[in-house]
AraC family transcriptional regulator (Ahrensia marina), 336 residues
Amino acid sequence: MSEAQSNSVAYRRNVVFYLLPEFTMIAFTSAVEALRSANRMLGYDAYSWRLSCELGGTIAASNGVEITTKTSIEEERKLLSASSRPTLFLICGGTNVEKYATKSVMGLVREEYARGIAIGGLCTAAYVIAAAGLLSGKRCAIHWENLPGFQEKFPKADVYADLFEVDSNIYTCAGGTAALDMMLSLILEDFGDDLVNRICEQMLTDRVRAASDRQRLPLRARLGVQNARVLAIIELMEANLSEPLSLLEIADHVGLSRRQIERLFRHEMGRSPARYYLEIRLDRARHLLLQSGLPVVEIAIACGFVSASHFSKCYRELYAKSPQQERAERKQLLVA
C-alpha cells in the first residue's frame, strides 16, 4: 500500500496543464475529468490544477473552443519557488506541434524537470519534451499518426505506439481517450484499485486499458478484411517498409505460393500485393513529409525506394502532386 493510500487525507498533487495552441480538447478534458472525479469520490481535493499557456489569457483548442488560463510562462517560472509549485507539469499538445515548440516553452520544461518536477505530455506533446532534450534513452508514447516523423526527428528517444508510457518521472500518452487511461494509472498509483473502479463506474468506462494496449483498431477492423492469411501478409509488409520484402520472401514467410498471394490480394484488397505494398510505403512517406524536415532523398530511402526520382514518380501517381509540392503546401498552412 502506498503512502498516499495509508494517509490519503494528507495526500496532494498539484498539476499544471500547459496548453499549446491547437491542443486537442478530448485529451485535455479526459485528463482533467479523471482528477475531478477522483476528488469527488475522495471527498476532498487530493488533486488541484491550474491552466497555463505561453502568454497567459485565452487560448484556442484545435476545435476552436477557447479556454481561459491562469498563468503565463513567466508566472510559472516564479511559482517554482512558491508553495504552489506543481508536482506534475503536463503539456497538452495537438496539431502543428512543431510550430509551437518554442524556446521559451522548452526552457520552462527543462527548468521544471531540473527542479524535480514530473513532466508529462498529452497527444503530440512528447515532441516538445523530446525537443527539450529530455527523452534521450527514455520510453515515450505519441499518437500513431505522428510516430514516423517523431522516430526520424528524435532517434535517441525510445518511442512506442502504446497508449501511454511512464519512464521514471516522465509521463507521455498518445492523446485522445488514452489521456484518461494514463491519469487513471496515476490515480491507481496514488490510491489503489477501489478508487479507480469507482471512477470508471462514474465515467461509464468498463476498464483501465494497459499502457501497452494498441492505439489503432486491429487490422481486421481497420481494413474490413477477415482473411487471416491476408492480414498476416499485411502485418509483415507494415513491419518491413524501409527494406521491402520481395513477393517470394513474403511467400516463404507465410507458406503460400506467389500465385496464391496474388489471387488472395486481388479478391480481398482489389489490387495486387505489390500495389498494396507500394501504397502503404507511400503513406508512410507522406507522414514523414508532413511531420519532419528530412530531405526528400532520405524519406525515399526510409520508405524503401532506391532513388528520389523513382519515389517522386510513384508519389505523384498516387497523390497527384510531387513530394516537394506536398511539403510546400504544409509549410503554407503552418505560416497561415
Observations:
- The chain is about 50% helix and 15% strand.
- The chain has a mean pLDDT of 92.
